[in-house]
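Hi Prof. W.,

I finally got the VOC domain-containing protein prediction working! I wasn't sure whether to trim anything, so I left the full sequence exactly as given:
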Amino acid sequence: MLFHYHYWTPYLEETELFYRKLGFRVTQRIGKENGEFQTFSPPLDWNDFRNRKIVFRIIELKKGAINITFGYGKRIRFDHIGFLLGDEEYHQICQQATQQNWNVEEGERRTFLYSPCKWKVELQTNMDAIDDVNGVSIEGMNVVGNNVDILIKILGEKMTPLTIQAGDDFRVEEVRFSTVCPNVILDPNGVNLLGVER
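And this is what came out:
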């Protein structure tokens, strides 16, 4: 299941507020202050730390079967998409990625696949990455990127919700949610969000 996307952005507070207005809840904020990583998660809000020099590494929001993360970047830059998988699917996709010469970086909580051509894909098997598998979900996503054929070989039928347009600048242009938003709206990072009926 396609469940996740991550951005680097200078518009942290604006992005958080935007998605909170769509019903997402903040589950964590981790940032570096005075050289040390600390948490600034709820119940803290922006009024508690807005004027401090914190470089946020990750802000995570969840709603239903959707998980969105972003961190501070000097410019807007899309980082990766993520799939929530069962153990068998996970091992199959890792094997296919290795066969296509992608770097597979297994971590304690998640695994990343790195392509030679800018694609980065997160594989997640922990159900606590989302709130509710039966809740609102990502129904589709339009992505710009290159070497699509290799991605298709690796993801197989998991590619179904992705529409990919060839291009060198790896980015997401549109995300289709099941009933999160009533019509097309633009998030602070230039991504079109569209609510669709299941």
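Helices lie at 12-21, 46-49, 87-99, 148-155. Does that look reasonable to you?

Thanks,
D.
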